[in-house]
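User: Hello, can you help with two protein structures?

Assistant: Certainly.
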Amino acid sequence: MSSCEAQWLLFLFRDLGIKHDKPINTKHIGIYCHVVRERLENHTIHLLPINTSLQLADIFTKSLSPSPFHGILSKLGTLDIHLPTLRGCVEASIKDHTTSLQGPDESPTNLKASPIQN
């Protein structure tokens, strides 16, 4: 939850008559530093430390060694575009199947479409 959302939630609680005296924990900040500092000082929010291994944005902002890089990459659910695709496997399978159905005198260039009979 961002600090703006936390502030809004506290105002909503106050308007609804719900008492909430504890600070709201937040893991990430999406607004300017001075606003966050103000909310920290008046105990509206409480920042939680996050372990570097859990910071998925590091893959985009830091030069990582292979182990942390692949660990974060696996958490992002990305696909390797250089691996064979299912489409390529299916097309090869269809080609093999078509070849096995043809008789000895039939080749793909000699096959002619026949009209559909009703």
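That covers the first. Now for the second protein you mentioned:
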Amino acid sequence: MLRSPITRAARSSASLLPSSATRQAVRVPRAAPIACLQQQIRQAHAISNPTLANIEKRWEDMPPQEQADLWMSLRDRMKTDWKEMTLQEKKAAYYIAFGPHGPRRPAPADEGRKVFFISAAIIGAAIFVFSLTRLAANPQRPKTMTKEWQEASEEFLRACMLVQSKPGPKGQFDDVEDPDDEE
């Protein structure tokens, strides 16, 4: 019989530890990892003023690793009481989170004009290529495009529609009487 790995694991642990009370007694609380202790220590001190000075102008030019380090230290500071944060830390955290940098940077002033002119140039080039191909094409129209051919094909279709007024193949409904014909 096929069993899932979860069922097998549950049964194997149940055979080793027969009751749930025994299982709970066997659990040993783990010590806090060293990284958590270091994070708590990092939260204790404020970030230096030269690090946060003029962050709005320096943020774009900072290397990505330095940006990440600064953001992580600010994030750790924000986990503590905000009353303990300096005004410069609050401003830097707000700028990094919501400031006009990266994808939130405002568009350049002439971007709309550039988009319009480039789009107009592409459309104009497409019209020019279309016109050029029409000029280079054979001026004589195919015989199926003449007025006489179109009228003849319409007459042919009308004749086919009159012969086959009922749907289906010819002769399918010849022996069946139509209830509307009784009147």
